[in-house]
Amino acid sequence: MKDTTGADFVVVARIEALIAGHGLDEALVRADAYVEAGPDAIPIHSRKAVADEILAFAKEWNKKLPIVIVPTKYYKTTISVFRDAGISTVIWANHSMRAAIAGMRDICGRIWSEESIAGVEDQVAGLDELFSLIGYDELAQAEQQYLPKRTVDRRPSDPDQFQKLHK
């Protein structure tokens, strides 16, 4: 399966046994079955607030393939613990989004209470940064290239005069 679409193509085989409540043995059975299919990494997940299941999986797995984790629930575990366990990749799946939601709630609350945006302007991203993130220059170039050119409508506002011009 490797390199089927180029060197940058990566196949991961996500193990949901712990999430489904099937335990460590089932997670290992599924991971071993995935190895037969040839993935590049094994993501393993847990619902628990501590990383015990994940660390036990990493120990038993013995680095057969890289392990990817998403520690949304067991967030108090430090990176060094994961590193020491041989976990190769940690994905902070939704913390940026959750931070953005909290920030938007705070800013909107201030705008509401202050009835102005003046007090928050220095705490939000500038328009240049926003336009850069959304690729505004690329959009403007695409509009120039692909949108039909329009002429300005110069019809007189007086309908009688319009009729005279177009007879």
Give the structure's gist in a few sentences.
The chain is mostly helical and 167 residues long. It contains 7 helices and 3 strands; from the N terminus they run αβαβαβαααα. A 3-stranded parallel β-sheet has the order 1-2-3.
Structural description of this entry:
The protein is mainly alpha-helical. Helix content is 46%, strand content 5%. It contains seven helices and three strands, in the order H-E-H-E-H-E-H-H-H-H. Strand 2, helix 3 and strand 3 form a beta-alpha-beta unit. The N and C termini lie far apart (72 Å).
What are the defining features of this structure?
167 residues; 2 domains; 3-stranded parallel beta sheet; elongated; mainly alpha
State the share of residues found in helices, binned by percent: 40-55%
What is the total domain count? Answer: 2
Number of separate strands: 3
**Largest beta sheet: what is the strand line-up?**
1-2-3
Order of helices and strands: HEHEHEHHHH
Largest sheet: 3 strands, parallel
Class by alpha and beta content? mainly alpha
For the record, give the distance between the C-alpha atoms at the N and C termini, rounded to a whole number. 72 Å
Overall, the morphology is elongated
Q: How much β-strand is present in the residues?
A: under 5%
Structural topology:
Layout: H1 23-37, E1 42-44, H2 52-61, E2 67-69, H3 79-84, E3 89-90, H4 95-114, H5 127-133, H6 136-146, H7 159-165
Parallel strand pairs: 1-2, 2-3
